[in-house]
Design goal:
single chain, alpha/beta, Rossmann fold, 24% strand, binds S-adenosylmethionine
Length: 185
């Protein structure tokens, strides 16, 4: 990763910590996702909940190194504008941002995804996941943020992925807690 991208990520990380309402993943969670995309060789990443694009830049940079791309969905017009500006600054042209309610948008998405990141409304993780599931490849990685901090709002999701025989799922105590799942078949 080049120095100007590292500087931008640092700037956005500080911005998120010092301003209300952006709810970015932690920097170590960003590093973790970056590594996960690289080792899984994911080429088609889907993110639900962009905010100002901090996590998208981590994921998009790794996807670019895999010669892949990312689609990210954000409902807020203001945040979509901020994120689009940040993606330009990051010089990442492999990011497609969609301004829409993810519950409406996911069923319309074309193609398959080999990496899914859930980070919008916690109570809806189960719904995002069920809508995205038919579009996930065998071996797809699914990561869901806030599995410790907001565990009580996402219990149905956590229980569903942990009991599902087609998935292997484990809680990773990084940042706000990440539920990491692998689609086995
Ligand atoms: C936790 S923030 C995302 C943070 C971002 N992933 C990061 O780490 O930089 C959640 C975002 O989901 C968006 N959101 C909420 N409901 C949504 C929905 N139904 N569809 C798409 N985005 C939604 C919010 O506007 C908010 O920006």
């Amino acid at each position: 990763m080049n120095n100007s991208l590292k500087r931008l990520l640092q700037e956005l990380e500080i911005f998120g910590r010092t301003h209300d309402g952006y709810y970015n993943i932690s920097a170590d969670t960003g590093e973790f996702f970056y590594i996960l995309v690289l080792i899984s060789k994911a080429k088609n990443v889907l993110e639900v909940g962009t905010s100002d694009g901090y996590s998208t830049i981590w994921l998009g940079k790794a996807a670019k190194q895999n010669k892949g791309k990312i689609t990210t969905i954000e409902i807020s017009e203001h945040k979509v504008k901020m994120a689009a500006y940040n993606f330009k600054r990051a010089k990442l042209s492999n990011i497609k941002i969609v301004q829409e309610d993810a519950l409406q948008e996911i069923p319309k998405l074309k193609g398959k995804f080999d990496f899914l990141f859930l980070d919008a409304v916690k109570e809806d993780y189960i719904n995002y996941f069920k809508l995205a599931y038919p579009k996930l490849t065998k071996g797809a990685v699914i990561v869901a943020d806030n599995a410790i901090m907001f565990e009580k709002y996402m219990r149905d999701y956590l229980s569903y992925v942990r009991k599902n025989k087609n998935l292997k799922s484990v809680l990773v105590p990084i940042g706000s807690g990440v539920e990491f799942s692998l689609k086995l078949k």
